[in-house]
What we know:
By secondary structure, this protein is of the alpha+beta class. The protein has 2 domains: 1-33; 36-192, Glutaredoxin. Helices cover 43% and strands 22% of the residues. Helix 4 (74-89) packs across helix 7 (182-193). The N and C termini lie far apart (43 Å). 29% of the residues are buried. The structure holds nickel (II) ion. Nickel (II) ion binds at residues 67-68, 71, 74-75, 159.
Amino acid sequence: MKKFRLFIWVTIVVLVAVLAMDRFGVFSLKEAAVVASIGGPFNLIRTDGSPITQDDLKGKPHAIFFGFTNCPEVCPTTLFEVSGWLKQMGDDADKLVFYFFTVDPERDTKEVLSEYVGAFDPRIIGVTGTPENMTQATTAYRVYVRKVPEEGDEYTVDHGASIYLMKADGSFSGTIAYGESGDSALQKLKNLVK
Length: 194
Ligand code: NI
């Protein structure tokens, strides 16, 4: 009974502390809820044809970027920067896995994706799948994706441009924003593999 009373008191103190931090902006409950829910189940394939699920990401810190091979600027710029960071990380680069998930699975077949991603750095793993399965993944990671029609049958895809940094247990660690300085990005990657 004494133990139970102590438990109740501890719970009340923790609750009050969390609500106070939320109230005074030290910590946001809403943000915490969003962060906790980044990531989720998916069923996709790597460019070598092997299946990949949420569980396969676990075991090593990883970074995920969502984009597409026909992207005019954001994706090639980001992948070029990623290839530079991986080189700068030296042996530490082996401690994390970098994934490029396509947001355009209709055009980005595993062959197309393999050639594209490989041109930046062979360590970046391209991931594709059926449109339905890709949508499941982008929804799980809360990535903004919107197909925008262009002339004729052409289209482009607007998409969120942040790199997601994920811990080895699959939980969300942070992001690298598009255009963030190289020093800052490299530091975040080093912290991720610490
Ligand atoms: Ni892009």
